[in-house]
Amino acid sequence: MSWQSGLMGNVARSKDRMQPEKTMGVKLANVKTGTGPEFSWRTWGFLLITAGDYGWDPQGTVLDFEFQLDSFARRNRLNDITRKKYENDVRRFCRLWQGGYDSNHFQMVTEEDSKVMLKSLIRAVNNRYFQEAAGKCEMESIRVLMTFLKGGAFRIGQ
Questions:
Q1: Which pTM was predicted?
Q2: Which of 102, 103, 126, 141 is the least crowded, having the fewest Cβ atoms under 10 Å away?
C-alpha cells in the first residue's frame, strides 16, 4: 500500500519541517467519540513515515458510503430529492478510493491498522537512536498520536 505522495515525503524528511507551516493540516477524529488531535501536513507526514520506518505496513484507508453521502449532503445543504441525485457519484467515489492517508476525505483508518501504527510508534520512541535524533516537537507529536491511537479506528479529515 502506497500512502505517501512524493511531495509529502520530501517535506517530511527535509530540514524545512522545523519551520512553522502556514497551510491547513489534518484533523483526526475517533470514530466513536468524534474527537482527536490536529496536525500540520508536515507533522502528519513525519508521523506516517516514522510509523512506517518502525514496522507499520499500512492496510489502506476505507470510505464508508453512508458517512460520505451524509457528509456531502450536509456540506452542500442538499434536501432528500437532491441528495438522491448525488448517490451514484458518491458511491463511485467510494468504490474508486485508493486507500490514501494524505488527504482530508474523512477516510477511515481501521482499528487493526490503528493498533499496528501504535505498536510501531512505541518501537520508535523506545529506540535510543530515534530518541537522540528526534526533536522535542516531534516526540510530543508522537506522544499525542500514540495516546489518540489507543482509542481505535479514526477518520482523517479537516
A1: 0.79
A2: 126
